[in-house]
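Person: I keep going back and forth on a fold encoding question. Show me how you would write down a chain together with its backbone fold. Please set it down just below, with no commentary around it:
Helper:
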Amino acid sequence: MQSRFWAIVIPLLVLATGAARALTVANAAAPSPREFPPQVFLPHVTGGFCGPFRDTFDAPTGWYEGERESLLAERSDGEYRLRVNESGVVWFVGAPDCQRLESSAAVDARWAGDPGNFYGLLFATAGRLDRAYLLAVNSESGVWMVLKIDDKGIDRVVPPTTDAAVRPGGAVNRLAVAREGERIILSVNGAAVGELADPAPDEPLGVGLAVAAYTYRTPADARFDNFSHSGGRAGAPGARGNLLLAGPEPPGEP
């Protein structure tokens, strides 16, 4: 099965094949999409059933790896590394997995070196960044928050919230989102910290990762491990792809 990168550039939020530059907080002009070669994935969708996807990043499984603009993405010592070298920028990278009607995702996240602005776990209706939410953690301030990404840009729907579940500094934090009925449960290190009303409970969710740099400090060097995404029913046979999504950081910092 072949899948191309999808890129959504904020504020335009137009779904396109190719890749796009990450925009800063300033009003930068959106560049034209560029074509990149497709990647080949082994299908694991049969009759609408999608098997569990678990990744320890010890071997290639289809995540984006390479350098693009201010982003470095690579497997490193059994972790997935996303390093942002430009201030005030956030990058999103989608998981090479099914979109699932029954969706439960989790990942371990930490900083290498000085903490960045935030890292996060993305969940997107039908795999679209313009219909997405992000569970984000700023470990330096000990807070979690929820960002909404739509065709108007990025907004905070849950403001930075202090919680003892967030481990400080460079410690590992396990982020998790789980669809339960018409709710999405948000957890940090096994503790439920909040929930959202599911905006589209009858549509599948695609998931991914995010990392953002501060406006005053770079780089933001995040490491991810033990990624999982489960839930038996796929959104559609073969609904699988590696999404590379780029956009600006929301205004303000925790």
The domain at 44-248 is CATH 2.60.120.560 (Jelly Rolls).
